[in-house]
């Protein structure tokens, strides 16, 4: 009885070469992706991603920024296509914005003003995405890399907002009634924080972090003897440049990151104040 013959299928040399090249290509792509993620992580930790802005260089607490900005703001942004799409998208979130404002006991208009600047900046920085997605769908852009969510809040800032709520000795402390507003049942607070701020279907926490952030800044200045509750342009500037640059001063100047819309250049604080003082979106009362 003859033994059964085992048939072997030979792989063509060209196929083997192509598979080898494909394998090497996948390895290279993964390595490059890993390197980009590592550089991004290091950049965030070393604050390389902080944006140079427009403010009065004569004041020490704005010393890392440049140039001066006026409170009087060109209203050309109101007629821009970006704004026409954005205001419709913002009204879709009215429930979450009003809820966050009520919980934090702050005007919803103070939440919407920096939201508008963050979104307009995102729209103008990503023109193709704006034309293909944001404009036709009338939705907000959610960031999830260097800055998070619709408000562009950085991880370190979000952590400090949380810490300020708990620290009764902090100049940012708001009182015991606010201490547990950002508590989480998750065993990993970092993951919980990221998920809260980058959730594209529920943006309540993005607005609550914003409201508490602004309220903490106002409390710090109030404790130092400088009330900025009637100076929204200063509050929005501080929102943009961060806790580390918030040093109460008798003569603060409006400014922040440079925002270019069409041929007009605004400062973050100036543009946010421009909306705040406008008649746009009256649904969010002052």
Task: Write up what this structure looks like.
This protein has 286 residues and is mainly alpha-helical. It folds into two domains: 1-49; 52-276, no CATH class. Helix content is 51%, strand content 6%. It contains ten helices and five strands; from the N terminus they run H-E-H-H-H-H-E-E-H-H-H-H-E-E-H. It has helices at 13-45, 81-92, 94-104, 108-125, 127-137, 155-166, 189-198, 204-223, 232-241, 268-276; strands spanning 53-54, 143-144, 148-149, 256-261, 264-267. A three-stranded antiparallel β-sheet has the order 1-4-5. A two-stranded antiparallel ribbon has the order 2-3. Helix 8 (204-223) packs across helix 9 (232-241). The chain starts with 12 loop residues before the first helix and ends in a 10-residue tail after the last helix. Residues 43-71 have low confidence and may be disordered.
Listing every helix as H and every strand as E from the N terminus to the C terminus, the arrangement reads HEHHHHEEHHHHEEH
Rg from alpha-carbon coordinates: 24 Å
Count of β-strands: 5
How do the strands line up in the largest sheet?
1-4-5
- Share of helical residues: 40-55%
Structural class, by secondary structure, is: mainly alpha
- What about the largest sheet? 3 strands, antiparallel
- The N- to C-terminal Cα distance equals 97 Å
């Amino acid at each position: 009885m003859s033994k059964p013959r085992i048939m072997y299928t030979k792989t063509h040399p060209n196929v083997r070469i192509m598979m080898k090249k494909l394998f090497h290509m996948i390895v290279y792509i993964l390595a490059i992706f890993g390197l980009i993620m590592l550089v991004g992580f290091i950049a965030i930790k070393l604050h390389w991603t902080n944006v140079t802005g427009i403010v009065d260089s004569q004041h020490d607490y704005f010393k890392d920024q440049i140039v001066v900005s006026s409170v009087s703001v060109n209203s050309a942004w109101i007629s821009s296509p970006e704004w026409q799409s954005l205001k419709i998208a913002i009204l879709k979130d009215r429930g979450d914005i009003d809820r966050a404002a009520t919980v934090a006991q702050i005007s919803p208009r103070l939440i919407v003003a920096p939201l508008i600047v963050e979104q307009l900046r995102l729209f103008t920085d990503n023109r193709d995405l704006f034309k293909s997605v944001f404009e036709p769908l009338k939705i907000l852009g959610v960031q999830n890399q260097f800055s998070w969510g619709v408000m562009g809040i950085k991880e370190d800032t979000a952590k400090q907002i949380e810490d300020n709520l708990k620290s009764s000795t902090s100049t940012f402390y708001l009182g015991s009634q606010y201490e547990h507003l950002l508590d989480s049942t998750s065993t990993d607070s970092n993951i919980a924080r990221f998920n809260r701020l980058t959730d594209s279907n529920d943006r309540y926490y993005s607005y609550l972090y914003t409201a508490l952030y602004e309220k903490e800044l106002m409390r710090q200045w109030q404790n130092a003897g400088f009330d900025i509750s009637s100076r929204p342009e200063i509050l929005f500037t501080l929102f943009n440049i961060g806790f580390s640059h918030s040093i109460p001063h008798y003569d603060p100047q409006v400014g922040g990151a440079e925002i270019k819309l069409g041929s007009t250049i605004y400062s973050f604080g100036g543009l946010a104040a421009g909306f705040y003082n406008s008649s746009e979106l009256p649904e969010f009362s002052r």
